[in-house]
Amino acid sequence: MTIQQVLLLVLLWMWLPHPCHTEMLFRRTPDLRPKSFGGRASGNDGKAIHRQKRGWMWNQFFLLEEYTGSDYQYVGKLHSDQDKGDGSLKYILSGDGAGTLFIIDEKTGDIHATRRIDREEKAFYTLRAQAINRRTLRPVEPESEFVIKIHDINDNEPTFPEEIYTASVPEMSVVGTSVVQVTATDADDPSYGNSARVIYSILQGQPYFSVEPETGIIRTALPNMNRENREQYQVVIQAKDMGGQMGGLSGTTTVNITLTDVNDNPPRFPQSTIHLRIPESSPVGTAIGSVKATDADTGKNAEVEYRIIDGDGTDMFDIVTQKDTQEGIITVRKPLDYETRRLYTLKVEAENTHVDPRFYYLGPFKDTTIVKISVEDVDEPPIFSRSSYLFEVHEDIELGTIIGTVMARDPDSASSPIR
User: Which residues are the signal sequence here (predicted)?
Assistant: First the structure.
């Protein structure tokens, strides 16, 4: 049914008589003049004066907004019980829009609206009515105030204050976790029909999210949504008036939802065994190399701490956690000697520093790897058997006489001739 058809039906209903509701269609305003209890009074000449009750009568004034007819829209009729139908009375209208928006037939009291009216601009108009005697120009009724109320039609779609919303929710959240609430407003009259009753539905974003029809609260709809699999979602929400029924007007908004990280991934070394080499001449504190465990989480959830937990080189090497790179740097703790020991084995552990108890079942949140360190030989200088020698000789010794012997050795495993 079109809006024009609805308007026509409403207008027909207003014109038709309703005998069972005459008390709603007409009313009499109370006479504002004082009255005697007996209804009679005596004049100066002693004659009884009969006071006649006077008052206004008019229909209740309701006007349909957005009228599209070619003629002026009929509002209603003012009528005084002093009007005998002989044209002796003149009706006068004043107040909101009188003479411009609302005009009155001064003879009949019929009121018309001269243009379309938008209820969302103004919901009611307060006017005053008066009837005067055309000959004497004296009022026959006290001025009375009345209201023209604008009846709403569904001419406004629901609108969201934001075209795009941004929200987030932790990954792995349980089904039904609240993400964000979106609210649409409808400029139609909430007290009249369902024109402003908004129902929410989800057009895009299923089966991951759902929306509560009455509140607009968006909730998670799937369990175990993993950020590492998918981080960004775009949800389109529709708000439809008329309680969501067919024929209602609608508006939409987009909600960009990001899954935030939780610590649901343990650190893992990419290799079970790592090989490093270090020259035997390296001083204490020298960095040999690094190990790194990968973690699919981000931020503090990916932070790890490295330690040496076993091996035959625990007293010879240290490991330090590099916070910015999340690497474990292995350093020399004591001097090395190729001729004494050529290979060391370490067992290194990486463990998350911020563990979420909710995800213990996905653990353990640590891992180990074996680090083999080979000490490389360096060509070392010969070493004398003593740091100093003392020889005594006679002053008259012959040339070529042996006065003593010094001895040096090559500390390398493959000894070289010494000269």
Answer: 1-22
